[in-house]
Every structure is written in structure tokens, then in C-alpha cells.
Amino acid sequence: MLIITPHARFKRFIQDIIIHTPFIKMVILLVVLWLLFAAAIYLTEYKLDGASIHSYADALYWGVAAFSTAGIADTPVSGFAKLMGGIWIVIGSALFFGTIVATITTYFMRPMLRPHKRIIETIEYNLEQLNDLSIEELDLLKKTIDSLIEHVELLKARQLAH
Q: Distance (Å, rounded) from C-alpha 77 to C-alpha 113?
């Protein structure tokens, strides 16, 4: 009997998320946009009187605070920075929360899209249609089933060997 440890399950979970969901691509896109919008805010604000952003680090912090629900981001001074900030808040929030929703949805929908589900559904459908099959089609079905049984027996033998 194959025993799967919690560590192995967690590792498989992380691999599934990385390989089969948009998580990594979306996080990279979010980080790139954060860096670009922070640069735009910094370049617009750093020389203005009354501005709270005096360094790129301040702009990076503002970028996180602005799209999070913390509500602690200072309002930019210039009209262009306010526009860029507003666009960043909308895009950043949509990407952040959209990434979470897309990852969860993709992860839980993935088992329904696996090929074995489609193979089983096709076999079940064809079994329902047995009365409509010709002798040649039934022979082909028998050969396919025999091949499937051989494959299953081979897999069982391999599993027992390990």
C-alpha cells in the first residue's frame, strides 16, 4: 500500500499550483506593474512641495498601501500622480484578488478536466450504445478492453514490485 505523507501532499499541492494555474505568471505581472507604477509616482512626486513620496522606497511602500485595504497610503499631490495612483489601485487590486480566485478555481476544476475522466465518460457512452455496434466494432472494443486489462495488470505488478 502506498502511503502519502503530509509533506508529500503539500509538495504535490505546490507543484500543481505552480504548473497548472496562472499563479506565477500573475504574481510576476503584479510585481512588474507595481515597480512601474511606483516609478511613475516617484518621478511625478519627489520634487513637489507637500508630497509624501521622497524616494523610490516611499513609492514602493505607497504602491502596496494604496491597493491594499490598509488605507494608510498618503494621497499624491499632482493630478497625474493621482491618476496613476487610481489606475494602480484598480489594476493592482483586480490582479491580486483575481489571481487568488483564478488559482483556487483552476486548482479545484483541474480534476474534472483530467483525460481519464473523458476516457471513462467515452467508454460509458459507448457501453450504452452496445446494441448499435457492428461485429467489427465489437471486436475492436474487445481488443481495446483486453489491452486495457493487460495494462492494468502490468501497473499492478510494477506497484507490487516497489
A: 50
